[in-house]
Structures are given as C-alpha cells and as structure tokens.
C-alpha cells in the first residue's frame, strides 16, 4: 500500500543519536533531576495503580501547574512532550485549507507537524539578526490570515527571545491563535505567560507552550503543557488520544514543581556557562549570535561547517549541524552542557578550526 503522497516529500526530523562522550546536540539539561525529587518519585511509584488507566484529565498535575503559573487549572493542557501539545493544536485548528504561519529559520517541527496534519504552512523570513520584523509580520498576517501563528521564543535554533512588545504586536495583528513556543522560556528574561495572566479579549488567542524536557531535566519523561484560554484547552481535549499522559509522567511533573527552586539554580548555572561559551567562541574565527536559551548558534568563518561538525564527532563531541537548514548556511548549534562538557567542546572546536 502506498503511503500518503504528501508524506513522501517530508524529510522527517532526526537529530543523529551518535554514541559520543559529550552530547550537546538536542538542548537537554546536562543535569539529572535532584536526588530528593527521584526519592519522592520512587515513593510515588508505590502508590500508582498500574493496572488502571491514568487520570485522563491530569487533574493533580494541572492543578499544580496552574498554581505554579498563577492561572486557572482550566487554562492548562498537558501532553506527551510539548511536541504533542503542538500536534493537538494543529489537529484542532489546522487541516486542509487552514494555513498556519512560521517565521524562518525556526523550530522545524512547527512546519513538520503542520504538514503531517495536512495543514498548509505560510512562512516569512526573520531579519538579519533572526528577530521578527514587525512589517513582515503585518504583511503575512494580512495576506495569509493564518489560523495559528507560531512564534518560537527563545527561537530554536537561533537563540534570541522576542520582547513582550513584539508578542503583543503579533497578537494585535494576527486574526487567529498566536502560539508562543517557550520550550526554552526559563532561560529568558520575559515570558508571554505575563500576557496570558493579564487577560483581556486578545489573551484568549494567546497560547504559551512549555516543556519539562529542558530546565526540569526530564526529557526522558516526555511531558509538556500549554497555558491558554479554557476554550483552546477544550479544543485540544477533543483531538488528543485518551490517557495520553501516563501516570508516572503525571506524578513526575507534579513532584518536579516542588523542586522548582533547584531548577532555577541550574538555569542560573547554565546562563553563566552560556556567557562563558559565548565569550570563548568570540575569540575564535566564528560568527556567533546572542542567545537567551541553553544553546548558541555559530558559523565558522573560514571552514566548512560539516567538516567542523565531523572533526568534533572525531573528538567525541556531538553538536547540531544546522548548515543544511534554510537560512542557516554554514551554521552549527551547540547546547550548553556542564562546565566539563563545555570545556571539551571549546577545546575540540578550537582544535578543529585550526
Ligand atoms: N519546542 C521547541 C522550540 C523545541 O526546541 C523542542 C525540543 N527540541 C520542543 C518544542 C519539544 O520538546 P518536548 O517535546 O521534549 O517537550
């Protein structure tokens, strides 16, 4: 049986899982969750009724997230990674003839999941510094009237966060939902959650997507969520598969929030390391871009990016090769790791560029 013809053209989204000593390619946290959290989770496992389906509505986790963010529990929707949140939004609001907008280069899964769900994608470029150009935004919103506008902030893989002024502007001109993907939100100074909490008629179209994969050190758990208007939550509940978030993940997410202060400390360490890596890269023959996230985009000035990527793999350091992505000619992205991992990366990149 032939696969759907429109899927044949899709390249897929694969970060190579090469066996190396230093993995700085998928923007995870270098730190395992705190031991106290793991002990609490082990206790919790003894209380889970494994023979029963989990709470379909994730009641306790939603209540805990709502308290954490100062919103109502009916404004929270949980899923298997923030990717599933994005998929639910596209299933509920996208589809044939209902275009969504992206500003490129950006997180490739916005486009990919849209295409998988049969949703057309209209795109416009970011400016030379990879920020949103408000005139370009206005033009795209006016001509394409997208049902969803994706704004990745901080933007993966380029690093910068948009200001709340920019997000508010997009909300003012967009006719549909504005989905702010804040997978790296904890590393940035401002969050669009402030605009959700401020309320008002426009906030009903604002969706903020977050994940436990990065700062909470729970990428293995696959847990993400969104904060949005209750009507958007209800729409996602229409399309999500029943019992999408397993009982262990629900417990892990709820318990992780109790350790938010430990996570904040780690964010502080990673931000300090990010500055150190940026400064060190600044002394090498590479172009770098400012970052509000836990990764840095850079471009070797006199060397082939793929060759540098290979030389790093030869030194057991894996980073992300973005050089083939539209708008990112010659670019590589490195995740900020532990100080030791960053030292390994900096030594390897220095040697590789010689
Ligand atoms: N959004 C962005 C911008 C990301 O970079 C990622 C992870 N690569 C995700 C969403 C998905 O994260 P997860 O599904 O692990 O929550």
CATH topology name of the largest domain: Aspartate Aminotransferase, domain 2
Tell me the β content. 5-15%
Number of domains: 2
CATH-level-2 architecture of the largest domain: 3-Layer(aba) Sandwich
What is the strand tally? Answer: 13
What would CATH call the class of the largest domain?
Alpha Beta
Q: Give the termini distance in whole angstroms.
A: 52 Å
Bound molecules: 4'-deoxy-4'-aminopyridoxal-5'-phosphate
Offer a concise description of the structure.
With 354 residues, this protein is α/β, with parallel strands linked by helices. The chain has 13 helices and 13 strands.
Description of the molecule:
The protein is of the alpha/beta class and 354 residues long. It has 2 domains: 5-32 and 261-353, Alpha-Beta Complex (Aspartate Aminotransferase, domain 1), CATH 3.90.1150; 35-258, Aspartate Aminotransferase, domain 2. Helix content is 41%, strand content 15%. Strands 2-8-7-6-5-3-4 form a 7-stranded mixed beta sheet, sandwiched between helices. Helix 2 runs antiparallel to helix 10 (247-258). 4'-deoxy-4'-aminopyridoxal-5'-phosphate (PMP) binds at residues 27, 81-83, 107, 152, 156, 181, 183, 211, 213, 219, 224.
